[in-house]
Design brief:
By secondary structure, this protein is mostly helical. It is built from 1 helix and no strands. The chain starts with a helix and ends with a helix.
Length: 66
């Protein structure tokens, strides 16, 4: 009887460990997707800012020539 109870407890423990590990993988993927989206948004913002600065410099150079 003790061996049966020990086997059941060990089975439940391994099942809970597997379930915890299995559910952690999608969460990690979601976090990675969110981080990737943030990086993309930051890159777009930096690109816009760079283009605006380039236009400003170009306009200043054009005004200085006149």
């Amino acid at each position: 009887m003790k061996k049966l109870i020990a086997a059941l407890v060990a089975g439940l423990f391994s099942l809970s460990a597997f379930a915890a590990a299995h559910s952690a993988v999608p969460a990690a993927k979601t976090e990675a997707k969110e981080a990737k989206a943030e990086v993309k948004a930051g890159a777009k913002k930096a690109k816009k800012k760079t283009r605006a600065k380039a236009k400003e410099v170009k306009a200043d150079a054009k005004a200085a020539v006149k």
